[in-house]
Amino acid sequence: MASPQRLPAVPAPSLSLTLSGKPESRPVGQIPEVNSISTLLTSLSVTGTCECVSTLGPALGGGHGWLQGHHGLVADQFLSMNIVLANGTLVTIDESSDIWWAVKGAGHNFGIVTSVNVKVYDIEHSNWAVETLIFSGDKVEKVYQAANDHLLKNGTQSADVVNWSYWLNNPDADAENPIILFWIIQEGVDVVDSTYTQPFLDIGPISATPTAGTYLDLATWTGIDLDAIPCQKAGLNNPRFPIYVESYNVTAQRQAYELFAANVKTDSPFYNSLFMFEGYSNEGVKAVDSDSTAFAFREDNLLFAPLITYTPNGTALDQQAADLGNQLRQIIHEGSGREQIHVYLNYAFGDETTSEWYGADQWRQDRLKSLKSKYDPAGKFSFYGPIA
User: CA 336 to CA 372: how far, in whole Å?
Assistant: First the structure.
């Protein structure tokens, strides 16, 4: 580790993107969204998916993104980092530092990151395509079985393909029940390969819309761009209840759908809620040694999260939302057949355990606690996903 330097004040954070030995930097506050980073250079850096969150925030908890099938998590792109520790010193850390393991998955616990140097990659394909499918709720089993069989393929989903879906209310498509909004996204084509789309078209969607574009369109296609409703400050509560699984259990999907549908009726305070199903390729994620980072769940293939959206109206409603979110997550967990729930830290509701955030292996828990004791014994950085 570099010699510490006493800081009178924390400098403005920045992100360095290094290409051919020539870094380009810009303050992080000026590049919070995916598209801004993508336009800094003619190359791509691995970022998250939603445009209205930062880049470094998700990265400290692992960070999923559209390019992870090729290059791994956002945290896997770190080359070096300047971080202000709990004792007020600014240090530069890299793979030679003992804390390096911890900041890639549990970084919220160890300091304030002021800058980071990350990998960038040549653009292999400038074109992307999406097939947007809308199904009625009676198709739950068929849709997610098709996803297992033709997209996920026992965890071998192609690096250039993403499957992504929501359950949500759309009265124009179905006035009575939530719809299944399902996207099949493919890199390097103008039309998604029929090998992927035809099994879903055969199910009988309400609509199917093919669209061509670029990487910069992905957030817009999936409703998480800066102008989308989820990115607006509307005074709403939006707790999530994430869980990783290996595949879609269609029986559990049906049970969860029925509970979700019953609680998001027109007169429900949770009418605008949605259930998220993120099916990235994990080839690049699994290529990184699981023991090499604090992010523990590289072998999981899918990330689910009910997002319970409502206008705040007292603690009783808050508890009702928490109960619903946890009930939905529990259905999925029971369908997974696992003893331990695996939770994506960046989506965490906050009532989960440290083993559910950081992995149940005792050596992981011991290593995190040891590093926490060394670098932040007073627990100054313990607001989000606290280790202890």
Answer: 32
Give the number of residues written for the chain.
388
Domains of the chain by residue range: 5-119, 128-347
Closest listed residue to residue 329, CA positions, set 242, 238, 237: 242
> From CA 388, how far away is CA 379, in angstroms rounded?
8
Q: Which two tokens stand for residue 172?
A: 């124009």
- Extract the tokens encoding 44: 């791509």
pLDDT at 4: 41
The CATH-assigned architecture of domain 5-119 is: 2-Layer Sandwich (3.30)
pLDDT at 14 over 70: no
- Calculate helix-pair angle for 140-147, 250-263, nearest 10 degrees: 140
**Cα→Cα distances 76→32, 38, 91, 363, Å:** 19, 17, 20, 21
Same fold? 5-119, 128-347:
no
Task: Name the burial class of residue 198, with classes exposed (0-12), middle (13-18) and buried (19+) by CB atoms within 10 angstroms of its CB.
Answer: exposed
Which is nearest to 217 in space by CA: 35, 371, 83? 35
What pLDDT sits at residue 44?
82
Do 46 and 29 form a contact (C-beta atoms < 8 A)?
A: no
- The mean of the pLDDT values for the chain is 91
350's CB contacts (< 8 A; 6+ apart) are none
Nearest 10 degrees: CA dihedral of 246, 247, 252, 258? 120
Beta bridge partners of 180: 135, 167
**128-347 belongs to CATH 3.40.462.20:** yes
Q: What pLDDT is stored for residue 43 in this prediction?
A: 77
The larger pLDDT score, comparing residue 239 to residue 25, is at 239
The CA distances from residue 89 to 2, 6, 33, 146, 288, in Å, are: 11, 5, 29, 53, 31
48-88 confidence digits (pLDDT tens): 999 998 899 999 999 999 999 999 999 999 999 999 999 99
**Burial (Cβ within 10 Å: 0-12, 13-18, ≥19) of residue 73:** buried
